[in-house]
């Protein structure tokens, strides 16, 4: 037997035997339904954190003294609020089991609170209209960019540095 | 609690549409920004944020709109099938937007660095452009400024009354200003200084090592008093200061010296000291002479009284005559001392000094054996009559002439001259000889009473002292310049104008 083959037999042999004798490994994990919800909630939290950091940086570098960047800062704050709103709605609908939501018909909702507190039902109802926060946030982004563009054009015309 | 779904539906539908519209408008704006300056990393960053937010807004809003339409159409099953995809895309978009946002700090730092570099490049570009456009003018201006500066300092170098000397450590002369040439007795046109060494001009050979030692230690030398040897062999006292300079355009360090000629000042100081000394001696002599004069008068009187009673042939008569002769000698000395101390009476008259000099020369030529001595006289025609004591001035001139004759010896030249220009306030009479001269160590004692270099019995040492006293008594002064082996010049200066004003 050649030395190489002998070495291979010595080292690889026990592994082959071990593999042949192995039972089920359970290497892959099953992903049930709540996992997607958790990922979505974590994404909301990540969005909140990143917008918070952006707002902090904008203030730290005194960019908020300029009008355009000020609107971008406001957009970041509104996106944070919208994320909180959306995350709370998901929490109420699918985590806390405090509300029973059903449709009477397409234009009417029945919201039942398990503890009989209508205030929670009303909060949920208003929180459900989350576009009231994300649309202004998007508008602030748009307006901020517009102001920056305008100022940049002005500076370019005057021949200064941006 | 039953609530209307209409507000939620409306907000959802309108909001979704607005989200799509606003996000796309934002993307359009940021694209315009980016087109303006594609190298601006901040605009690129905002573009990526807007792209991510647009994707998020479109995916979410389309999902919401689709949901509302499907539910309105009663397609719950279809929505249930689409819903996980919509939710998953939304989650991914959240993460994408958040991730892109977190790059802000790094992007901003890079942007600042780029801005700084760009600013530096712009500044350099502007400067280069300016230099390029104005190079010729700038060079001309700089050249003019340099020329003006060079002219200014050259002028200081040239017109300085003090000697300015630049030399290397080994003493080689690099540069010398016109005053330096004059001080060293050199001619700028004829004499070359470049290959000369400072050591050649220092009387003390140890002086240069001392100067260099000071320069090595303190980088400078501070007001050192030295004796300078001029090219004609004369010695001049100088005050030397200097400092080491590391010349940028020169390979070797050079020393800059400033040399002040203090010869005249030193002579004046010595003359003042001499005058003080002679004044003190005069006071002393005056006191002594007065005290001795009276007893001498008594001795002389009694001697003459005794002589009357003696016959001419007697031995006592001869002894008394000897006493009388020596007493008279003593009285002469006492009178000389009184003349020196300026205590003797004077009888001043307005006289022509040239007439007095002629009388003196006639007297000297008649009484001395001066056949081989050439006496030359040079009278200035502008000399005015002076108010002097004829007898005493004659005594001064006789003294000076006799000294000159003695200095010349058997053969030589004596020159007597006067100088009194119309504007000058003083008249000077010079008696110059080419005799053996006077050693410098004797010069400061020459007017001291009883100082003589003659052998014992040849002179009393009072001649020059008496002359000094007489000249001082006339408001003038007497100076001497002498070089051993070359001769001496005695200068008597008498005030012309004040004396005439007294008449």
Plain-language structure description:
The complex is a heterodimer of chains A (162) and B (503). Chain A is mainly alpha-helical and 162 residues long. Chain A has one domain (35-153). Chain A is 69% helix and 8% strand. Chain A has five helices and two strands; from the N terminus they run αααββαα. In chain A, β1 (99-105) and β2 form a beta hairpin. In chain A, α2 (34-60) packs antiparallel against α3 (67-94). Chain B is of the alpha+beta class and 503 residues long. Chain B has four domains: 6-102; 160-261, Beta-Lactamase, CATH 3.30.450; 268-340, Helix Hairpins, CATH 1.10.287; 349-502, Histidine kinase-like ATPase, C-terminal domain (Heat Shock Protein 90, 2-Layer Sandwich), CATH 3.30.565.10. Chain B contains 13 helices and 13 strands. Chain B has helices at 6-36, 41-72, 76-101, 104-159, 178-183, 207-218, 263-308, 315-340, 353-367, 390-408, 440-443, 463-473, 497-502, and strands at 2-4, 163-168, 173-176, 220-229, 235-245, 254-261, 349-351, 373-378, 386-388, 412-419, 426-433, 477-483, 487-495. In chain B, the strands form three sheets. Chain B has a five-stranded antiparallel β-sheet, with helices on both faces. In chain B, α7 (263-308) packs antiparallel against α8 (315-340), α9 crosses α10 (390-408) and α10 runs antiparallel to α12. The model of chain B is unreliable at 499-503 (pLDDT under 50).
Question: What is this structure's SSE topology?
Answer:
The complex is a heterodimer of chains A (162) and B (503).
Chain A: H1 3-21, H2 34-60, H3 67-94, E1 99-105, E2 108-113, H4 118-127, H5 131-158
Antiparallel strand pairs in A: 1-2
Helix pairs in contact in A: 2-3, 3-5
Chain B: E1 2-4, H1 6-36, H2 41-72, H3 76-101, H4 104-159, E2 163-168, E3 173-176, H5 178-183, H6 207-218, E4 220-229, E5 235-245, E6 254-261, H7 263-308, H8 315-340, E7 349-351, H9 353-367, E8 373-378, E9 386-388, H10 390-408, E10 412-419, E11 426-433, H11 440-443, H12 463-473, E12 477-483, E13 487-495, H13 497-502
Parallel strand pairs in B: 8-10
Antiparallel strand pairs in B: 2-3, 2-6, 4-5, 5-6, 7-9, 10-11, 11-13, 12-13
């Amino acid at each position: 037997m050649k030395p190489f083959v002998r070495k291979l037999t010595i080292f690889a042999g026990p592994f082959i035997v071990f593999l042949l004798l192995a039972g089920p490994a359970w290497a892959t994990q099953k992903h049930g339904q709540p996992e997607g919800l958790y990922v979505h909630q974590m994404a909301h939290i990540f969005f909140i954190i990143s917008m918070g950091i952006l707002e902090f940086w904008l203030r730290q570098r005194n960019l908020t003294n300029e009008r355009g960047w000020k609107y971008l800062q406001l957009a970041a704050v509104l996106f944070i609020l919208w994320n909180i709103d959306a995350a709370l709605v998901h929490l109420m609908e699918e985590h806390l089991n405090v509300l029973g939501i059903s449709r009477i018909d397409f234009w009417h909702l029945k919201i039942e609170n398990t503890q009989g507190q209508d205030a929670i039902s009303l909060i949920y109802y208003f929180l459900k209209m989350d576009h009231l926060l994300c649309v202004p946030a998007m508008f602030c982004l748009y307006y901020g960019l517009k102001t920056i563009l305008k100022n940049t054009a002005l500076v370019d015309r005057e021949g200064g540095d941006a | 609690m039953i609530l209307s779904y209409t507000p939620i539906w409306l907000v959802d539908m309108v909001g979704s549409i607005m989200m799509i519209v606003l996000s796309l408008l934002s993307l359009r704006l940021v694209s315009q920004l980016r087109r303006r300056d594609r190298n601006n990393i901040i605009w690129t960053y905002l573009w990526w944020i807007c792209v991510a937010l647009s994707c998020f807004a479109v995916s979410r809003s389309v999902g919401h709109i689709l949901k509302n339409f499907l539910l309105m159409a009663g397609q719950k099953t279809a929505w249930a099938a689409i819903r996980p995809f919509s939710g998953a895309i939304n989650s991914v978009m959240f993460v994408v937007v958040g991730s892109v946002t977190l790059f802000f700090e790094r992007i901003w730092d890079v942007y600042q660095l780029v801005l700084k570099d760009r600013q530096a490049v712009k500044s350099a570009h502007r400067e280069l452009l300016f230099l390029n456009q104005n190079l010729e003018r700038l060079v001309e201006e700089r050249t003019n400024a340099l020329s003006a500066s060079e002219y200014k300092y050259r002028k200081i170098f040239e017109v300085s009354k003090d000697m300015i000397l630049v030399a290397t450590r080994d003493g080689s002369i690099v540069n010398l200003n016109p005053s330096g040439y004059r001080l060293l007795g050199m001619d700028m046109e004829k004499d070359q200084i470049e290959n000369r060494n400072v050591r050649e001009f220092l009387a003390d050979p140890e002086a240069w090592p001392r100067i260099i030692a000071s320069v090595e230690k303190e980088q400078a030398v501070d007001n050192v008093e030295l004796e300078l040897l001029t090219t004609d062999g004369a010695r001049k006292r100088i005050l030397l200061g200097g400092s080491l300079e590391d010349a940028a355009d020169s390979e070797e360090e050079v020393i800059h010296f400033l040399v002040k000629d203090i010869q005249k000042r030193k002579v004046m100081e010595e003359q003042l000291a001499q005058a003080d000394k002679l004044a003190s001696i005069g006071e002393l002599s005056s006191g002594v002479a007065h005290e001795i004069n009276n007893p001498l008068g008594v001795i002389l009187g009694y001697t003459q009284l005794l002589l009357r009673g003696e016959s001419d042939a007697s031995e006592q008569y001869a002894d008394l005559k000897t006493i009388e002769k020596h007493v008279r000698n003593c009285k002469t000395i006492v009178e000389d001392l009184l003349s020196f101390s300026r205590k003797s009476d004077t009888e001043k008259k307005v006289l022509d000094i040239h007439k007095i000099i002629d009388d003196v020369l006639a007297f000297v030529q008649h009484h001395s054996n001066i056949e081989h001595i050439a006496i030359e006289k040079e009278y200035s025609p502008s000399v005015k009559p002076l108010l002097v004591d004829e007898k005493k001035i004659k005594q001064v001139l006789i003294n000076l002439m006799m000294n000159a004759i003695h200095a010349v010896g058997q053969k030589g030249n004596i020159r007597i001259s006067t100088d009194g220009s119309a504007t000058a306030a003083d008249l000077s009479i010079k008696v110059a000889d080419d005799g053996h001269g006077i050693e410098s160590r004797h010069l400061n004692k020459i007017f001291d009473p009883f100082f003589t270099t003659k052998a014992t019995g040849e002179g009393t040492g009072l001649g020059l002292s008496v002359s000094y006293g007489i000249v001082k008594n006339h408001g003038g002064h007497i100076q001497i310049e002498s070089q051993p082996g070359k001769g001496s010049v005695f200068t008597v200066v008498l005030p012309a104008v004040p004396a005439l004003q007294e008449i």
